[in-house]
Hints:
Elements: E1 4-5, E2 8-9, H1 11-17, H2 21-30, H3 44-54, H4 59-73, H5 78-83, H6 86-90, H7 96-111, H8 121-128, H9 136-145, H10 158-168, H11 175-185, H12 189-202
Antiparallel strand pairs: 1-2
Helix pairs in contact: 2-12, 3-7, 8-9, 10-12
Amino acid sequence: MVAFFLGMDYTLAFEHLNKDPIMAFLIKKLGSEIDLYDRNEEDLARAFSNLIIEQQISFKAAITVKKRFANLIENISNKDILNLNNDKIQSVGISFRKVEYIKNIIKYFESSDFNFKKASDKEIEDELIQIKGIGKWTIEMFMIFTLFRLDIFSKGDVALINSIKSNYHITDLSKNQLQELISKWSPYNTIASLILWKSIEDRLFYNKYE
């Protein structure tokens, strides 16, 4: 059976992840509902702007603010966004600091010729970490949802860590325990992450009796 859901063939990823019985349980329950491309935005500057909006706010709040921001910048160029008054951007629910970060990233993409498709994960991180307001989590989300890198796991993502704790019944997740799981899931940590996010979103966790 080919596991072709929502635009991507997950067969190889699922075959690999199914070696982990807990991941196999989650794939059976949630595998048909994940979509690596559901946040696809071909304009890299705008994709990154959305990720900046998502920093340190709830998933639901981020959806609302991103919609307002999309309406605000509809039919204008990225250069026009740079010329927008900061107060106007703030009015859609974006903090003053994040407005600065968004303009920083747009300025970067307006002048950069960095080849993200050919660069390694490490090269991408080294390139982007220099930009003010851009941290490791934002770069990892960019690599997952915009560049579609298949072996990314964000150790700093609270939802992922909480999902692991709930599914693997680990109260105090050690660095070694986490690294063992990441190594086990490689080279499909991105797909494992999508499953873990869906698990905590739906409040559906591993139950050995099901």
